[in-house]
Please model this.
Amino acid sequence: MRYRLNPFYLLIAGLYLCAPIATAQSNSIDPRTALPAACIAPSELTGGLDFAPDSSYLRLSSAGNETYASIDGERMKRLVEQQAEIARRYRQAGNQYWGRIIGTSADRETADWMMDQLRQSGVEDVRLDSIPLPSQWLPQSWQITVESDGKVIDLTSAWPVYGSVGTSGAGEKLELIDVGLGMATDFQGRDVREKAVVLHSIATSSTVFNSVRRIGALERAEEAGAAAIFIVLELPGNLQTAFYDVGTSVPTFSIGSEDGALLQRLLTEAAMAEPIEIDMQMEVDYVEGLSTSSVRGEVLAASPDAEKIVIVAHRDAYFEGAADNASGVATALELMRYFARIPKAERQRTVEIIGTPGHHNIARTGFSWLYENRESILDNAVLLINAEHTAHALIDRFGDDLCSTNATGPFSWRINGSNKLAEITLQTFDEFGIPRWAETGGPVGEIRTIADLVPSIVLMHAGVLLHTNIETTEAIPAASLAATTRAYAKIIEQVNGMSLTELTQ
Model:
């Protein structure tokens, strides 16, 4: 049997087929192609990630917390940007090793800026506690180059590992050898003596925590006689990354994955030809006679004998250091501003801020200074809060790209104190929509030497951008700053209704 199509259905089918043509000719925007790609491999060409606008970030509000609306995420983000500007000015002054580096002009400028912010907020007894520094490791300049196709190529992502030794004045030219992940089997049958060894490191929770340290690859390279070590951080792009000191006694650098891929290509193509050599030059000074400081200030309680709550925020940073730790400083400053606006007669406890010089140096100055001064700092203290890495966008990975999102990065947390303190703290984090690990853990940060001496709270995000040159202000959502800081303010007010015994037992 043959079927005939009804002319009406033929007309409808024709209109349906024409619909895409009509749409394409209209002025409407196809959201699949009109917006810039969110996933990108940061490099010299891109400069960084494209983050979502602040208005796009997910927020959670709950009834009864309207009183904390005066804690302003946008204002705090401006504080983050001002600290980033201090770091950028230090770089623009000709410093290749840059950030808010302890003992430098950027350190002093940050301290002066923080004191000014406290005074403008009505905080009392704003002052500096001067701290003399031991000899400070400060690289003055470095350059790493290889030759490819007759051209000299600068490995622009190269960044010295903290505490690395420098080269001779004339520099060093070494044969290059790649030993993969640096596992024991990777070194079998490989002669690395007096060579520049390339290790590929897989970032785990962040750049600082990575595979070469976990599996002992650096120690193997040194024991086998390496003359220099290059750690390729296998994250998309060509990031500059500042590692803490790794205990090596030869020049050691981090490099980005694009520069690492270049070295791989050169070594592959030269497998049957002349060896590939890498030129290194790094001048390192150990500077004597420097000093730093802790910034102090108080919002005094009604009673001169009142107990106190101490908020610690370290001031130093690598690169712009927007999360680590401009975000924490912004949180601490906003908390002091909030409590300074409460009439003095209604203040139950003094709130004290300490802007420490930080731990991004071999002496770990902030750790040791807090411990050495623990008796006076913690005298009459009932709660210690570490304001560190208090905001960050969640960064995901897809294939060869890093992907920005409109969500806040998850936080690790630690609470030293009673079950009641833990209960109100975690419930408050939930009320303000702060994503966190299901179980306690992660780093304690700047207060590590004194965190167990009094009730204390640590909330910290340490994601894939940590200690990199793309940990910029754009990575810090105003909504995340607001949520964390409002939560801390509510926790402090709840703690003010509890005795020290209730906080500890």
Observations:
- The mean pLDDT is 90.
